[in-house]
Every structure is written in C-alpha cells, then in structure tokens.
Give the backbone structure.
Amino acid sequence: MNEGLFWSWMAILLLGAFHGINPGMGWLFAVALGMQERSPRAVWRAMLPLALGHALAIGAAIMVAVFVGAVIPIELLRWPVGLILLGLGGYGLFRHRHPRWGGMRVGMRGLTVWSFLMASAHGAGLMVLPIFLGMTASAQGATCHAGTAATFEGPMAFAATVIHGAGYLAVTALAAWIVYEKLGLGLLRKAWLNLDLVWAMALFATGGLTLVL
C-alpha cells in the first residue's frame, strides 16, 4: 500500500470517529435509552443498530457515486458533491435543527432506520465521498483501462464503509459510556449546540476543499 492510499484510509477512519462525536448521530439516543430503562445494557444494545444504520447511509452514498461514476468521469463528480456539502454546511450554520424521532422506545429495526436517516440528513455519506472519489480517480489514473480500475470500486466501497463504520462505532460507544456513567444528560445542551456549529463548519470546509483541490 502506497503512502497516499494509507492516509486516505486513515482519513475515512477518522471521519467515522468524527461522526461518532456528534450526539445527533446516535450516542445521545443510546444514553437516553439507558437512562429510560435504568440499565447500561440498553446503551450497549443500541450500538449495533446505530452502527448498522450509519454504515448503510455511508454505503448508499458511496454506491450511488460508483454507479454514477460509470457514466460520468470521476473527476466531475466532485462538483455536485462539493456544492451539496457547501449547501448543507451553509444551512447548518444558520439553523441548528435535527430531525426528531417520534418516541424513544423503538426496536432494533426502528433504531437502524433512525440512524440511517440521521446520518443521511447530516450529510455523513457525502463527507466520505471526496476521499473515496480521490482514491478511485487515482486507481483509474494508475491503469490504462478504466474498466480494470472499476473492478476495484466495489471492494473499495465495501472496505471504506467497514473502516468508516469501525471509527464511528468506537467513538459512539466511548461517548455513550462516558456520558452515561460519568456525566449524565444535564450538561449536554450547550455541548449539543457547539457540536452543531462544528459539524456545519466541517461540512462547509469539506465542500470548499472538494471544489478547489
């Protein structure tokens, strides 16, 4: 593995960790379930559907890019991706709202769907795309046949989803444990707003970098 590819994989892993920090991505929901049922088992039970829903959102965004890339040159995809990220970031800078679930008592399927919708609404998959598109563009540039390079996109998409999901799950579980066991929910309101602002700025910066690099 060359150095550039190594750092691309590391960036995908760290993006997963960054997504896991955001309470709107799931750990706040897990903590609330734990406190509602007065059991740490409820916190850990929520991890699997949260991670699965998040991974499905990331995988869906990547696979759409793979299919679109079959008819549109990879280097051109960065423009719509970058513009969408700029739009989401700009919107988030002015409005700090999150989609809300109807109730906290949901099953595994409902929590998976909730996680998928939240990750999609926050643009998590779109943030991964610039890195993934850069990796696939490099693969196409390294071979004379785009079709040969395209055979690597499926395995790369799966690996990117798994690696990103691992980073997300590790940080989500750690944040849920710290808040549930040590902090409680009393101090989270201010942190929620601050993280909203950081998230919006990250979306905006990612979109800008996607367009200029």
Summary: The chain is about 80% helix and 0% strand. The chain has one domain: 3-212. Residues 3-212 form one domain. Residues 22 and 195 are 6 Å apart (CA to CA).
